[in-house]
Amino acid sequence: MKICIIVDDYLPFSIKVAAKMMHELAVELKTRGHAVTVVTPATDIKNSYEISYLDDIRILRFKSGSIKNTGKIKRAINESLLSFKAWWSLKGLFLNEKQDLIIYYSPTIFWGALVRKLKKLWKAKSFLILRDFFPQWVVDNGMLKEKSIITQYFRFFEKINYNNADKIGIQSPANIRQFQKYHGMKYSIDLLYNWASDKPETNNDFPYRKKLGIENKTVFFYGGNIGHAQDMENILKLAKALLKYENAHFVLIGAGDEVELVKQRIKDYSLTNMNLLDPVDQVEFKKIISEFDIGLFSLHKNHTTHNFPGKVLGYMVQSMPILGCVNPGNDLKDVIEKANAGYVSISGDGETLLTNAISLLDSKNRKEKGLKSKKLLQEKFSISAACNTILKE
Fold first, then answer.
1. Do residues 115 and 164 touch, judged by C-beta distance below 8 A?
2. Residue 110: what pLDDT?
3. For 184-221, where are the alpha helices, taking DSSP H only?
4. Under CATH, what is the fold of the domain 2-192?
5. Which of 63, 92, 208, 315 has the most CB atoms less than 10 A away?
6. How far apart are alpha carbons 370 and 383 in whole angstroms?
7. Contact between 104 and 7 (Cβ < 8 Å)
8. Coil, helix or strand at residue 262
9. Hey, do 2-192 and 207-380 end up sharing a CATH topology, with the first three levels equal?
10. What's the CA gap between 388 and 385, in Å, rounded?
């Protein structure tokens, strides 16, 4: 079968977990004998499109304005143009290369128009991997008003995105219930957990520990988006509370709209137990994560959607115990704690988060929960299971 994957971020130039996940999906599909083509935007190419290969996956990069780590207005405009620019740049290839299945990823919500054109052209089926209920989470967090013109603009494209999916894969049972609360039963949906390829990195040199002077510390590691949706204050206040524990240290790496907040709080709270590192590519990221002890994540308490952060799976690959906080009702808490793979508290409950963190300073407890973390990955979040869910449709 010929399969076209459409995603707004892809390896090797991205540091995002979504880019890594979609590449792992492409490689697994190719391993199963399918011909895979990836369509993705690029900001730094001279021509209207470029063709490249990564692990034998064919990648079509079309010229686009910046949609990552840029201002909100500029990002909204450039994302709005994604479908148009992809069609304009790649029309000749699309007309001559019929595909059987379209797999597209959201966020962004702006692929719907392109998918509609391609479905009609190729008479192909489509599967939407939906990881984020945008603009709902922005409304929930008070960043936009429900009846504002901007929200209605986003709702229009959200509807197009959903309407052109033959099947929508949603990442947790709680999210399925939430989606049906918003949209009723009009869409065909399936449970599709996030996934990761179980290929841990082995690292015996520990260059980052040596560079940062933390060879004998127990390191809490956070890697990924550093933005409003993550409410980084949860982690910053935890680090402040752990200052009196000399063996505890925090390493954060990533980009996003709360990076400056993190830098300021490190000064405000005198966080001598925290390092904030610049983003790196996925190859280097895997090397870094392999050096540290505990995987951190945080979600804003006002979310009504129930995300399973992709970074958590990266921690599981390295057999790291999980420590995090989620919005109320998020079933990631039950999944992790029932598997005894770590501790999850409700965002904003700093006391419980601190208690959980102190528990993981015990090496025996860390090792036990790290092993259970790896087992959970293998049982529920494998790339093979994700492929089976998509292809069965």
1. yes
2. 95
3. 207-212
4. Rossmann fold (3.40.50)
5. 315
6. 20
7. yes
8. helix
9. yes
10. 5
pTM of the complete model: 0.75
* Whether the Cβ atoms of residue 57 and residue 36 lie closer than 8 Å to each other: yes
Distance in angstroms between the alpha carbons of the first and the last residue of the chain: 13
Question: Helices 17-31 and 383-391, interaxial angle, to 10°?
Answer: 70
DSSP-derived 3-state class of residue 105: strand
SS3 content of the chain, % helix, strand, coil (to 5): 45, 20, 35
DSSP for residue 321: P
Q: Which of 317, 323, 321, 360 is nearest to 341 (CA)?
A: 321
207-380: what fold? Rossmann fold (3.40.50)
User: Token pair 């986003």 is at which residue?
Assistant: 154
Contact 373, 341 (CB under 8 A): yes
Pure H helices in 64-111: 72-80, 82-96
Q: Where are the domains of the chain?
A: 2-192, 207-380
pLDDT band at 291 (very low <50, low <70, confident <90, very high): very high
In angstroms, the CA 230 to CA 256 distance is 10
CA distance 47 to 27: 27
Give the full edge-to-edge strand order of the sheet including 218-223: 274-277, 248-253, 218-223, 294-298, 322-326, 342-346
Nearest to 337 by CA among 312, 372, 303: 372
Structure tokens at 329: 């009702």
Residue 298: helix, strand or coil by DSSP?
A: strand
The 10s digit of each residue's pLDDT in 229-269 is 788 999 999 999 999 999 999 999 988 888 999 999 999 99
In angstroms, the CA 82 to CA 79 distance is 5
